[in-house]
Amino acid sequence: MRIDVVSIFPDYLAPLDLSLIGKARRDGLIELHVHDLRTFTHDRHRTVDDTPYGGGAGMVMKPQPWSEALDQVAAQADARPTLVIPGPGGQRFDQAMARRLAECDHLVFACGRYEGIDERVYEYAARDFEVRVVSLGDYVLNGGEVAALAVIEAVARLVPGVIGNAASLVEESHEDGLLEYPVYTKPEHWQGLSVPEVLLSGDHGRIAAWRHEQRLLRTAARRPDLLPRAAAAGAGELEIAVATAADAGELLTLTHACWLKEGIDNRSLDIPAQHETLQSLTQSLRDWTTYVARLDGRLVGTVRGRLQDGPAGKGAQWDIGRLMVAPDLQGRGFGRALLELIQRSAPPAAVTYGLLTGAASEGNLRMYRRAGFRVVARDDPPGTVSLAKRRRATD
Ligand code: ADE
After folding, report:
1. Which residues line ligand 1 (CB under 6 A)?
2. Band of pLDDT at residue 154, cut at 50, 70 and 90
3. Which end of the chain is least crowded, N or C, by CB within 10 Å?
């Protein structure tokens, strides 16, 4: 990958000589060129800025040095490079964008300062470059250099060969929409604090399940905005969180409200959910990954999942259960969104999804079929239908 950076402070980019990115440069995986914008000025003072038309505070970067700098970079390009212009008004940088940029052969960074670059430069650049205005976040930096450093580091480490252990790229925060699990090293006991017992157990299945649970809990606690992403299509208004014991009372009320209709449809008062107590429900929160969905603070939906041994020889199954939406809010797509969310929450070991519904629950059966589930058993237990679906690589 070739990277060009244009800046009035070329020394700002010196850290790119260090650490893994520096090594990638020395190994020839990344070719970096830093250009001083002032070398493209033609006056004694090497002026790069001027006062804004229309008045206002601060200075604006002049278009002429930029056009010459970009012309020079474009002349050295084999194909059409991507031009990243960092700025607080840009598209938010995230891991998905890092992955897309890592596929480019040639990235160019134009680091602005002052109040910004004359707007015509963006149009001019579009003749030779794929232009992307990129923001690190909702705050203002003094210039684009720090943002360029951050973007280059996030992108360069995705270039094949830059990180020795490719597996460490997969098990990272944001790679699959969740934050990373907590990590520990020796000693086992330190300052009165101990490493969680499960990590010393040598039981890889338990460790994987614990780590997955930790990722969900951490994401719910620190970045709840990441959780609903899966559900956003149908449930943009819902606030989704991993259920805690504090939700048990409301969950019990919702369970009884939802399972009354199931009982009527299936002519049975012997459905496990109907017999749930506060105590059994609270216990279930420890055994299952349970999500709750709130609308304006009211608990209006839930779903849960648990990893189980699948049918013999077929690998582990992510059992899905208790998919519920408050009776007055059904028919809005919330159920489909929760079903989507719980499938996306399955740990890596799951190869199938499985669920159970009443044989007379026509609406449920329709929704599950539409979501790709197929009937695998009937009347086991009596009055129920079991459905399953193979997990796709993209889930
Ligand atoms: N330049 C100034 N502020 C910035 C930000 N938040 N992100 C990217 N570039 C910037």
Report:
1. 86-88, 135-137, 139-141, 144, 147
2. very high
3. C
Task: For each of the domains in the chain, give its residue range(s) and CATH number, in order of start.
Answer: 2-168 (3.40.1280.10), 227-390 (3.40.630.30)
Take atom 2 of ligand 1 and give the residue whose Cα is closest. 141
How far away, in angstroms, is 85 Cα from ligand 1 center? 9
Tell me, what DSSP letter sits at residue 10?
A: G
- Residues in Cβ contact with 11 at an 8 Å cutoff, skipping those fewer than 6 apart: none
The structure tokens listed for 53 are 């038309």
Cα separation of 358 and 268, whole Å? 10
Separation of CA 288 from chain center:
22
- How many angstroms separate the alpha carbon of residue 266 from the centre of ligand 1? 59
Q: What are phi and psi of 217, to 5 degrees?
A: -65, -40
Ranges of H-type helices in the chain: 19-26, 63-75, 95-102, 120-125, 145-156, 167-170, 204-222, 232-235, 248-266, 278-287, 334-344, 362-370
Residue 225's pLDDT is what?
Answer: 78
Reduce the DSSP state of residue 308 to 3 states and report it: strand
Contacting residues for 349 by C-beta, under 8 A, at least 6 apart: 205, 208, 209, 307, 315, 316
Looking at residues 342-347, what average pLDDT do you find? 89
CA of 149 to the centre of ligand 1 (A): 11
Whole-number pLDDT of residue 395: 61
- The whole-number pLDDT of residue 231 equals 41
